[in-house]
């Protein structure tokens, strides 16, 4: 059955009795629950270690903490084979370009975990001229793991939080299960500063306003 509620009603329907010896062996569930359970227990992370948080991520995968207990031990070197990107460490403007490009190469469904204060919001280097104030400015983030750096226990808690999010999803509402092609995120442009193509219209309007103010300033003087 595809509907858990209707399945439970059928199990207790007096018009269709189920032998007592079989009731304890029948599991009525939904397609969403089975599908989500399989995905949540077989996440293949794509490691994107950028700074000291990556050391804690490696420790979480070692024998002491053993993230294989949660079905996430298969670390993949290719975005084509991964469904979870772990951004761990300080994200510089120069690194945003390959991060977005690799994210677009991952197949749906895909998730992003921002590990540490730097990946989540810039951390202690937030005011730096070459540091991005959070990777969520460019790609969607599903789970944030705070800390500088987070402990392996904190990263494991982030894994469990992501599993709960996956288990609550429905095939009827998720965008990646609907018909039509998914839209890739535009690759940021790296020059004197980094530019998000999605903000091109806003940048153009601000430039026109600045030019108009500069042109009006001499006439007012």
Do you know the CATH architecture of the largest domain? 3-Layer(aba) Sandwich
Question: How many beta-strand segments?
Answer: 6
Class by alpha and beta content: alpha/beta
Q: What name does CATH use for the topology of the largest domain?
A: Rossmann fold
Task: Report the biggest beta sheet as strand number plus sense, adding barrel if it closes.
Answer: 4 strands, parallel
Estimate what percentage of residues fall within beta strands. 5-15%
Strand order, main sheet: write it out: 1-2-3-4
CATH class category name of the largest domain: Alpha Beta
Describe the model:
This protein folds into three domains: 4-36, no CATH class; 42-177, 3-Layer(aba) Sandwich (Rossmann fold), CATH 3.40.50.12280; 189-220. The protein is of the alpha/beta class and 221 residues long. Strand 3, helix 6 and strand 4 (143-145) form a beta-alpha-beta unit. It has helices at residues 4-11, 20-23, 31-40, 53-61, 93-105, 116-121, 152-167, 200-220, and strands at 45-49, 84-88, 111-115, 143-145, 189-190, 194-195. The model has no long low-confidence stretch (mean pLDDT 83). It starts with a helix and ends with a helix. Helices cover 39% and strands 10% of the residues. Helix 3 packs antiparallel against helix 7 and helix 4 crosses helix 7 (152-167). Strands 1-2-3-4 form a four-stranded parallel β-sheet.
């Amino acid at each position: 059955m595809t509907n858990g509620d209707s399945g439970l009603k059928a199990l207790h329907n007096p018009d269709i009795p189920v032998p007592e010896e079989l009731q304890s062996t029948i599991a009525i569930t939904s397609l969403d629950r089975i599908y989500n359970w399989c995905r949540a227990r077989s996440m293949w992370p794509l490691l994107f270690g950028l700074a000291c948080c990556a050391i804690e991520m490696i420790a979480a995968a070692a024998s002491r903490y053993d993230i294989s207990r949660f079905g996430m031990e298969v670390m993949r070197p290719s975005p084509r084979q991964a469904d979870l990107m772990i951004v761990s460490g300080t994200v510089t403007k120069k690194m945003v370009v390959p991060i977005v490009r690799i994210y677009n190469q991952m197949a749906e469904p895909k998730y992003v975990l921002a590990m540490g204060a730097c990946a989540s919001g810039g951390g202690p280097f937030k005011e730096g001229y070459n540091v991005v104030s959070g990777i969520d400015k460019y790609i969607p983030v599903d789970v944030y793991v705070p800390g500088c750096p987070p402990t392996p226990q904190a990263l494991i808690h982030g894994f469990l939080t992501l599993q709960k999010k996956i288990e609550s999803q429905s095939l009827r509402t998720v965008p990646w299960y609907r018909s039509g092609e998914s839209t890739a995120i535009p690759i940021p442009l790296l020059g004197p500063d980094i530019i998000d193509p999605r903000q091109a219209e806003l940048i153009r309007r601000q430039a026109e306003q600045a030019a108009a103010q500069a042109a009006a300033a001499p006439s007012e003087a």
